[in-house]
Design a protein that fits this description.
about 10% helix, 7 strands, mainly beta, OB fold (Dihydrolipoamide Acetyltransferase, E2P), five-stranded mixed beta barrel
């Protein structure tokens, strides 16, 4: 569509992603991305953190389930999608979401260490399917609602008071 701005942003997830089903039955996941730009201070000759930029990210369909199962508060991510501004709020309709490997270690099914995959040191399964079993035998990660249910509006109206991530 003409006039769309595709961007790639990085930052960290603020609060827990919210997984919902739309009126048409499609899954959608929404989370607040906090991006803190680095700015060069010519007076001191040092880099410093700039003003945090808050972006409401929405992911749909299969990716929504993966995002909800994989991300949590303060996880650093890289997000690509179409940027939109409505009522002075930045929205990003995301095509891709990935964990920022500059900040975290991430595993996929094929690289999951044996101990995390539920295998004993001798290679015997500890109640979970073997990593080399067919994909149908492995169960997909499931998402469960957080204990304290937050309303959708709370995530669509973030405040400017965002805690800084610890490094």
């Amino acid at each position: 569509m003409p006039g769309q701005i595709t961007v790639t942003m990085h930052g960290f997830v603020h609060d827990e992603p919210q997984l919902r089903s739309t009126e048409r039955g499609m899954l959608a996941c929404r989370f607040c991305l906090v991006s803190i730009p680095r700015e060069y201070d010519r007076d001191t000759g040092d880099w410093r953190d700039g003003e945090p930029v808050l972006v409401l990210v929405t992911v749909r369909a299969r990716t929504a389930r993966h995002v909800a199962a994989s991300l949590t508060d303060r996880v650093h991510v890289i997000v690509t999608g179409v940027l939109d501004i409505r009522d002075d709020v930045l929205y990003l309709d995301a095509d891709r979401v990935g964990i920022d490997l500059a900040e975290h270690v991430a595993y996929v099914d094929a690289t999951l260490p044996d101990i995390l995959a539920g295998k004993s040191r001798k290679g015997r399964s500890a109640g979970k399917p073997a990593a080399d079993s067919p994909p149908a035998a492995r169960s997909a990660p499931t998402w469960t609602a957080p204990e304290r249910q937050r309303d959708w509006e709370a995530i669509t109206a973030p405040t400017r008071q965002i805690p800084q991530p610890s490094h």
